[in-house]
Design brief:
elongated, 4 helices, mainly alpha, 120 residues
């Protein structure tokens, strides 16, 4: 199913823009529902989250996600890169060789690799 996106109203940035957006969203959803249009909105509008997550994820949630993902292969495991893409990567990496890393950088990399857990 193909959906059409249309800007029906816009607002300038202001301290109360969230309230204005919520009110407008409720009004437009009600109007379109009254016209019996097929909407994808599951709510009456307003109060939704905008932008990036504002609250940090708890350590417990992070641990549960980590446990759930352990043992699953990476998203790109087994994927083959086309010859064209490999050539493009090779061209983009030209000129990156020959740069010396400082002793501090090498020590940081070494420490990070020692902490790394490898699967067997």
């Amino acid at each position: 199913m193909q959906y059409e996106i249309e800007v029906v109203e816009s607002f300038d940035e202001s301290p109360d823009v969230k309230e204005l957006l919520d009110t407008a969203e409720i009004r437009w959803i009600a109007l379109y529902r009254q016209q019996e249009l097929d909407l994808t909105n599951s709510s009456d509008g307003g109060g939704g989250r905008r932008g990036p997550r504002k609250t940090p994820v708890s350590e417990e949630t992070r641990r549960r996600i980590s446990e759930a993902k352990k043992g699953t292969p990476a998203w790109n495991k087994g994927k083959q890169l086309s010859a064209e893409y490999r050539k493009k990567l090779s061209e983009n990496h030209r000129g990156m060789t020959g740069k010396k890393q400082t002793a501090e950088t090498r020590a940081k990399i070494s420490a990070a690799l020692r902490r790394r857990v490898t699967s067997s």
